[in-house]
Fold these 3 entries.
Entry 1:
Amino acid sequence: MARILAFAGSLRKNAYSKRVLNAAIDGAREAGAEVTLLDLGDYPMPLYNADDDFDANALRFQDVLKEHDGLIISSPEYNGSLPGGMKNAIDWASRVSDKYTMNEVFAGKTAAMITSSPGAFGGLRCLAHLRGVLTIMGVNVLPVEIAVSFVGQKFDDDGWEMTDEKFKGILANLGASLAKSLK
């Protein structure tokens, strides 16, 4: 059975990027994958500095990444790019530790990417940045990527269930595509 790790780039408790992730997770599970939902807020790490000792939470994050075959990453767009906290976690996890070589926990995995925004572009500008980062580390990124525009209109207030059935289906199909690619 394919094992997928899903996480959002936002650290906010009720972030849209966390909420849209659920539909993709449902699709991956329906396609037969085992999915672990991870909250980056549970793995606080200092700003990456190669002069510092390897961070314990970064090692925990590496361990979780190593256990999975694929990734579903949902990112908000911050100033046209990735959120700093997510990029920092990726930078820590890609580095050499006492257990893993450079990029070992990423290399050979396959990833699906989602972005979301209250605006008309849906966070589209950050997808190229995320694809570039993942590709450099040896991650195969699915060619289809989803940008959820006007994301606030796709949920009932602060609810976690997506009310826009069209986008819910698109996201579920992305999760299913990832799961099927890992078989």
Entry 2:
Amino acid sequence: MRTILVAGGVAVVLGLLGTPLAMMLFTRRGYGQLIREEGPAAHATKRGTPTMGGTVIVIATLAGYFAAHATTGYSATSSGLLVLGLMAGLGLVGFVDDFIKIYRHRSLGLRSGAKLAGQGIVGVLFAIGVLHFPNSVDLTPAAAYVSFLRDIGPELGVVPFALWVVLLIAGWSNAVNLTDGLDGLATGSAILVLAAFVLIANWQVRHPCSGVKLTPQCYPVDNPLDLAVVAAAVAGACIGFLWWNAPPARIFMGDTGSLALGGVLAGLAVCTETQLLLVILGGLFVVITLSVIIQVGSFKLTGRRVFRMAPLQHHFELLGWAETTIVVRFWLIAGLFVALGLGIFYLEWLPG
């Protein structure tokens, strides 16, 4: 528990103090946000706001994680390092995307194919990595299964599992990216899901499977405590960053942050064996992604739009809702999804 608290605390402080330094650096270099012309008119005032703030989240997370291990003497594990590597790798893909936008003075960075290729390479490396590095009882960071509250169904095999993991990583990183359209929306929503992973991993620590005997109420998860440390470090970094990213935002996370956060959510779900449960925990991200799919599908099939604008948060902007109202209400919805997901996770422990 002390390692979790130190990781989260250090990350909060670094996020809180490091973000203003990033704001000064990015402003001095002209790394400002470019706004889509077809977006809501109110967004024009955000033009030039420093972006790529996700670099602070990634750096504060890594610093919090390693500082916690250094001060408590708890050794870093392959599970924690692989999830952090996934986060950093996707953050790098997002950084390249953000830099191209700034360098070429346009609202689009990497082409979709190039971005997907970057996500795919990082995802494959992660998928292969989690099937290796067994611990003392021969548990690897993940097994080649689909999971809900634990692994379910038949074993997939290495190649299908790698494809499944890449799909999860691409889906969740893009879902957070789509949600990051209003000040603080993606950051605050991600904090809630990360807090849920701290609780889930802590519960798994307390209910390990003894030896090779599996029971319905144990979790054959490799190093869940370190996964809780990772989740706490990322949540802490996001809390520090949100101080400056809350409406009206003085800095944006950019694709650097959104891809990294989506990746770490997917990585935690894979390693805690809660891949499908994340669909409920991160329900807000799912709803916002579905709004884009519905909008595009409807327009291509019928020539009509279901929403005034997608993603969903912009629909409510065009209905006249204040940005702060949308953000707070969407945070509440995100919290309800997290509560539902945690309730389902703990449901099997209720008597009867």
Entry 3:
Amino acid sequence: MDESVFNPDRPFSVGVELEIRLLDKESLRPKNISPYIFAHLPDELDYHVHKELLQSMVEIVTPVCDSAEEAVDFVENTLKSVAKIAKEKDAVLASLATHPFETKEDNEIFHDPRYEAFAEELQIVLHNFLISGLHIHIGMPDSEAAIRAYNATIKYMPIFLALSANSPFALGEDTGLASYRTEIFQQLPRAGIPQRFESYAEYCELIDQLKVTKTIETIKDVWWDVRIHQVFGTIELRISDAFYDYDRLRLMVLFFQALLIYTTRHPVNKEFYQISKQNKWNAIRHSLDGNFIDEDRVSSIRETAKDLVKKIAAEKIFAELHCENDVEPLLVLLDQEPISEKLRKIYQKSGDFKEVIRSEIIS
């Protein structure tokens, strides 16, 4: 398929991809059993549970859904099926963007030509790539809407990083960050904050250069925090930490879906790259309590997000999505403490990283 041609999906449809860790139920260290999981999946889930770099990880991939609720229902039901298979190998599932005390020696890489090529190219960067993420796809009606939504996502993606940030611990210590996973991920050569594009043609020009120079084979080899997926016809938000809490995930996906509808109607102004970088750092370090710079104004990421929710609600977009009753729960969620702080308090009280992990086990 020609990836320079935008392939529209159902406007503002939803897809979710969630990476989940497989852990020994006693030691809570990684358990490299994903080949066993794949060998015992029911046929209807073959397409929806994917392998990842590590054999201690699987990825849940929803079909194209009409709503956040439908997508997260699918994730929940699929996790139950995978957890049942994992139990046969004395393993549990956990939503950890970083594991508090695992090492690279605990893990085995999945034997796949693509992953082995990455390992050869990236060397120590990939050896320490012990992280899990969450991706959200929103269908776009056309390429012009996609560019508007893409540019807006660059500006507002610190909000979704802050809402998901749950990786304060790694290698047996408190990193001092809300999302250490993000710092690891952006070491990749084609990761991090992408540039803004003035047109879809300009976006395609860059992608074509990367292909012609054999830097990438497909758009799958571009790991930006947000990307236009031409084949799927979506905007894909890739900045978020992996986590699993049904209500938080549903509200977060709904927020992103509604935001893209809003910003295709109200394009954002161009933002300096350094501002985008600083806002992202503020989310990495402080989650929702970090500063958000908007031109010459500063407020918290939390207050910026709440203001956006109110603007979207005033445009009746939540009503269009038949989710007007979710506005208040979303505002309540934005007032809650970040996941990273909840995990930090568990460790401060117990002094045991296992208690942190147990709080994130998917039952």
